[in-house]
Amino acid sequence: MASIAISGITIGIGVLGPAIGEGRAVATALSSLAQQPDASATITRTLFVGLAMIESLAIYCFVVSMILIFANPFWSHAIS
């Protein structure tokens, strides 16, 4: 039961950082595109690479959460 609660907390806290980071990155990219439309290919490519790096943190938190729910190594100690 505790692993389910901890996995929920892991997802809840672990998604806040990437969400804020992605929002700021997109806002900055849109303002850069408005100022320099001729550099749109470079800005867009850099934005997508940056978003992939930012999103990897949320994916890692999701994987840790799934491990806590379905493959908890401490489950046998909690039962006894």
Automatic annotation (TrEMBL):
- Membrane topology (UniProt): Multi-pass membrane protein
The UniProt GO MF terms for this protein read: lipid binding; proton transmembrane transporter activity
Keyword Membrane tagged: yes
The UniProt keyword set, sorted, is: ATP synthesis, CF(0), Hydrogen ion transport, Ion transport, Lipid-binding, Membrane, Transmembrane, Transmembrane helix, Transport
InterPro entries associated with the record:
Alt_ATP_synth_F0_Csu, ATP_synth_csu_bac/chlpt, ATP_synth_F0_csu, ATPase_proteolipid_c-like_dom, F/V-ATP_Csub_sf
**Family note:** Belongs to the ATPase C chain family.
Spell out the protein name for this chain: ATP synthase subunit c
Q: Which organism is it from?
A: bioreactor metagenome
Give the gene symbol. atpH_41
